[in-house]
Amino acid sequence: MRKLIAISFAVGMVAFAASAARAVQPDEIMPDPVKEARARGLSRELRCMVCQNQSIDDSEAPLARDLRLLVRERLAAGDTDAEVIDFLVARYGEFVLLKPRFEPRTLLLWLVPPLVLAGGGLALWRQSRRRALATGAGAGAVTPLTPDEEARLAALTATDVPADKAR
User: pTM value?
Assistant: First the structure.
């Protein structure tokens, strides 16, 4: 049984690795392994403009292939990683980056999620404090019944079943 599980796991891992690696075609791979590693690293940082939630390294869209080839062309021409990124941002805008740069114009993008999370945590904390205070105050203080409530209670208890028959 263990052997079957191990084989299934191995087959699953190979299938997963093959599916992740099939986006980059063999004719795209650069002969220099160092430049190819740089190209793959850059491709993981760039958004596929068709898929929008995948990097161009993972996408099989024709535009992603064109962008992968463009990255490799720029690296073959001697550009640095920063120059390749700057070239693509100048051509396609900041949207091409999967992880936007931390700049004054993207400050709101970076700060809103933590602020919303902190605000939600604060709201939950305040609500739990209010509930604890309300529960604590209600449990400690006994409010006397009004005359109408006492009369209604007396009427209800007078019509109740005797205690020995309620069991």
Answer: 0.54
Q: What single-letter amino acid sits at 123?
A: A
Which residues are paired to 55 by β-bridges? 47
Q: What letter does residue 71 receive in the DSSP assignment?
A: H
C-alpha pair distances (Å), 140 with each of 76, 133, 135, 143, 146? 78, 11, 9, 10, 19
State the amino acid at position 64 in one-letter form.
Answer: A
56 CB burial (10 A radius; 0-12, 13-18, 19+): buried
- 22 close to 55: Cβ distance less than 8 angstroms: no
**Mind listing the pLDDT tens digit for each residue in 68-83?**
999 999 999 999 999 9
Distance CA 153, CA 145 (A): 10
Structure tokens at 46: 């760039």
Which residues, 6 or more positions from 160, have their beta carbon under 8 angstroms from its beta carbon? 166
Classify 152 in phi/psi space as left (phi over 0), alpha (psi -120 to 50) or beta.
alpha
Residue (of 67, 66, 70, 78) closest to 35 by Cα position = 78
Residue pLDDT, tens place only, 7-62? 777 676 665 554 444 577 777 788 888 988 999 999 999 998 888 788 888 888 89
